[in-house]
């Protein structure tokens, strides 16, 4: 309570000004993970990058299928001659007269450098797999490199120095010259991107809202210590850690706003208007994106007018109704899901598995490799009560991690059910009865400030402990957003609650992410998970789940594709690979003086350029 009072005091001191139409305050939850566009893979980071950097094209208004030009002057199409070779060649005429925030002019070489740097950097757990898959049909730099060299990455590089072994050095140079460089070429004022095979979602992947396709300033990137653009050095930057990147907390985009400050202690990002922005200066001159994890503080800020919009806790939405100065926009469509995920082989050094043994004070790292342990969690969530009481109806049940609205969604698939008897029965079967006999202890983690995810974690604790009194000991662990992300990436969390906002509006973006051995979440789910989904199964006709996912992604007939996704989802449900909790319906809460806001389910946050304030 003392901490809360201190925070309220700080806020009251900080916000004592009258209504200012040029300053916008967004009180949200958490803070960015990183501002490096090629590493950021979360909405908190994406919102900042979206407003600071720009892409070649952008989504048009509310549409998720129509595009408009940004740093390219035209959207490629077959009709205008900018898509050729049956969908394998895309030509982007680069806009002239655009300047980066430091005054450097935008050039086609900047575009080429940006794509190449991202592809070669390809950090673990980052978003660049999408561009590797779109351009080359592989899922990572390392997969493409191993295919090119004919050796595992572990044999190509010296483990101590990180440098290539002498016999492979020229191969790495050739990899850049023969694979990466030819895929993105400058031809006069154009940038030409060549795909290995036609890939339908390519323009969705590089449209604005996707920070991984943001355009960087080559000259400045080299000056501050990023890849120098040379063929014989690229590997020196391939394993750069988050905080080591010069772009971790510093930006230089072409967008409507500049980064003024990222105050890590206060979880506060301050943006200022780019007065020389090529589309015209923004109406807002300052934007503050402030991570305020405490609901009552955010609510008080909105009611006083110290915040223009806030992250709402749906459980308390009714507290804001009836205020004539507050606008509530309901039932906003989303392409997002919230899921309870398991790590099937936790990092043994994790502090979230207690003793690391099945002795009543912990669990073994592979505890959730057992299907009955997973099924016990699935039965311990009161889904209907969560949607009714916590989300206030602004959510819907989904059978798997595929949201309604995308090809392959099938409402007739079975849903997991809340059932205390089933919790008990599954716990008694887990680990051949040893989980029940010896007892167990582990943590369930969520990102602090997210009340819906907090309630899910509390349900898991309450109902497991109720079903197995004295045997189940569950700790609920709220973690700051960057800490939460880091812990999942290190494989430390046995059970964690997280969501996924579509990178592009296609079922592969969810199915691949959650269920493929090379999906973004696979590293967080452990080696046993990866073995399970990559092993051929009799019930899948001798194919692995990986095989089916890849087959579905490549299929061009929508009906055939839908049948494949149905088969995939049935297998996922039968094996309780993870637990889909709900698909949210969006709710936005803002002061009535906020004008111009509109929704687009692909956007990672607000587009501050289109917004203004007017009483």
Automatic annotation (TrEMBL):
One of its GO terms (cellular component) is periplasmic space. It comes from the Bacteria. Residues 66-521 form the Solute-binding protein family domain. GO terms for molecular function: peptide transmembrane transporter activity. Keywords: Signal. The keyword Transcription does not apply. GO terms for biological process: peptide transport. Residues 1-18 form the signal peptide. This is Peptide ABC transporter substrate-binding protein.
């Amino acid at each position: 309570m003392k901490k809360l009072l201190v925070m309220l005091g700080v806020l009251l001191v900080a916000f004592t000004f009258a209504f200012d139409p040029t300053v916008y305050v967004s009180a949200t939850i958490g803070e960015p993970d990183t501002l490096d566009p090629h590493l950021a893979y979360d909405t908190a980071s994406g919102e900042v990058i979206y407003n600071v950097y720009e892409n070649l094209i952008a989504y048009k208004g509310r549409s998720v299928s129509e595009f408009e030009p940004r740093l390219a002057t035209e959207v490629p199409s077959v009709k205008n001659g900018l898509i050729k070779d049956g969908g394998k060649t895309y030509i982007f005429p680069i806009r002239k007269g655009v300047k980066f925030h430091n005054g450097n002019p935008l050039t086609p070489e900047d575009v080429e450098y940006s794509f190449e740097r991202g592809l070669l950097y390809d950090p673990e757990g980052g978003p660049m797999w999408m561009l590797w898959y779109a351009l080359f049909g592989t899922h990572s730099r390392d997969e493409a490199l191993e295919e090119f060299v004919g050796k595992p990455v572990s044999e190509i590089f010296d483990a101590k120095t990180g440098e290539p072994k002498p016999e492979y050095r020229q191969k790495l140079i050739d990899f850049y010259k023969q694979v990466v460089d030819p895929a993105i070429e400058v031809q006069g004022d154009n940038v030409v991107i060549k795909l290995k095979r036609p890939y339908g979602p390519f323009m969705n992947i590089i449209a604005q809202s996707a920070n991984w396709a943001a355009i960087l300033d080559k000259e400045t990137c080299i000056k501050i210590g990023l890849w120098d653009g040379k063929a014989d050095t690229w590997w020196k930057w391939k394993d750069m850690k988050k905080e080591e990147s010069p772009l971790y907390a510093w930006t230089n985009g072409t967008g409507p706003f500049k980064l003024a400050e990222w105050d890590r202690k206060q979880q506060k990002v301050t943006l200022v208007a780019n007065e020389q922005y090529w589309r015209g200066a923004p109406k807002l001159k300052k934007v503050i994106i402030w991570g305020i994890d405490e609901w009552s503080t955010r609510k008080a800020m909105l009611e006083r007018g110290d915040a223009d919009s806030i992250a709402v806790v749906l459980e308390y939405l009714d507290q804001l109704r009836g205020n004539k100065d507050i606008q509530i926009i309901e039932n906003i469509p989303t392409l997002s899901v919230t899921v309870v995920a398991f790590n099937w082989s936790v990092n043994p050094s994790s502090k979230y598995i207690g003793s690391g043994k099945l002795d009543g004070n912990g669990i073994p790292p592979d505890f959730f490799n057992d299907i009955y342990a997973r099924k016990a969690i699935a039965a311990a969530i009161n889904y209907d009560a969560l949607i009714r009481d916590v989300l206030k109806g602004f959510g819907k049940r989904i059978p798997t991690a595929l949201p309604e609205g995308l090809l392959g969604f099938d409402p007739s698939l079975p849903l997991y059910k809340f059932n205390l008897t089933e919790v008990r029965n599954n716990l008694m079967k887990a680990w051949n009865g040893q989980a029940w006999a010896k007892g167990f202890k582990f943590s369930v983690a969520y990102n602090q400030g997210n009340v819906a995810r907090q309630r899910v974690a509390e349900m898991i604790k309450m109902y497991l402990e109720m079903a197995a009194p004295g045997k189940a000991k569950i700790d609920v662990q709220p973690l700051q957003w960057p800490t939460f992300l880091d812990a999942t990436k290190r494989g430390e969390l046995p059970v964690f609650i997280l969501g996924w906002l579509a990178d592009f509006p296609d079922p592969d973006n969810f199915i691949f992410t959650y269920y493929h051995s090379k999906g973004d979440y696979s590293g967080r789910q452990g080696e046993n998970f990866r073995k399970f989904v990559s092993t051929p199964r009799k019930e899948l006709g001798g194919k692995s789940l990986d095989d089916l996912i890849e087959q579905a992604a490549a299929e061009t007939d929508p009906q055939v594709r839908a049948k494949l996704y149905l088969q995939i989802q049935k297998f996922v449900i039968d094996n309780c690979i993870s637990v889909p909790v709900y698909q949210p319906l969006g709710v936005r809460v803002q002061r009535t003086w906020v004008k111009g806001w509109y929704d687009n389910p692909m956007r990672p946050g607000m587009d501050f350029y289109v917004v203004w304030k007017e009483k």
